[in-house]
Write a structure and sequence with these properties.
5 strands; DNA polymerase, domain 1; about 10% strand; two-stranded parallel sheet; alpha/beta
Length: about 190
């Protein structure tokens, strides 16, 4: 009887192992899905170049008339006038905007009281990036066709950054660019 009992015991142990394995598979936990959400990318800063210095020509009622100055980007008319030695007592400061930002290649003329100032000797008269066709045609050497080309260039390429860029517009040459230099602004 001992043999039979041992066989039953072994059978019961085997049955328990099978039942335990069945229970383990039946009640095992569901696998957990882990989702890793990376942080949003941060903007990579663009390499920026240092703005070039501005070359400014100052004339009129200043202590150093005819001064050709090198000014930092972001300088104002007042800075150029001070760099040219400051204004003379006869300067008519009401006719010059000292707070205006300077543009490269610009001429600043500080008029004397009672002096008649033409566009060629005063501050640049036409803002080329916002001027209408009529305003552009008021400039010497700019007719209807060239004014249209300037406006078309602005619409296709954005603001004209400096006077040298005008050379990219059909109809501009070195002589016309030099004639326009004191008459236009790029701000």
């Amino acid at each position: 009887m001992r043999g039979w009992t041992t066989a039953v015991e072994i059978g019961l142990i085997g049955l328990m192992i099978i039942a335990g394995a069945a229970l383990l598979f039946a009640f095992r936990p569901e696998p957990v899905t882990i989702t890793i959400i990376p942080p949003p990318p941060t903007a990579t800063p663009f390499v920026t170049s240092t703005p070039e210095a501005l070359r400014i020509y100052v004339t009129g009622a200043v202590r150093l008339p005819g001064a050709l100055l090198t000014m930092p980007h972001g300088a104002r008319v007042e800075d150029a006038v001070q760099a040219a030695g400051g204004m003379l007592p006869e300067a008519d400061i009401s006719r010059i905007n000292l707070a205006r930002l300077l543009a490269d290649g610009e001429q600043i003329h500080v008029p004397r009281a009672g002096e008649t100032v033409t566009a060629a000797s005063g501050e640049a008269a036409v803002r080329i990036n916002t001027a209408t066709a009529a305003e552009l045609m008021a400039l010497p050497g700019i007719g209807e066709v060239l004014a249209g080309r300037i406006i078309a260039y602005r619409e296709a390429n954005g603001a004209i950054p400096d006077i040298e860029t005008l050379d990219a517009i059909d109809g501009f040459g070195a002589a016309l660019i030099e004639r326009l230099r004191p008459l236009i602004r790029f701000d």
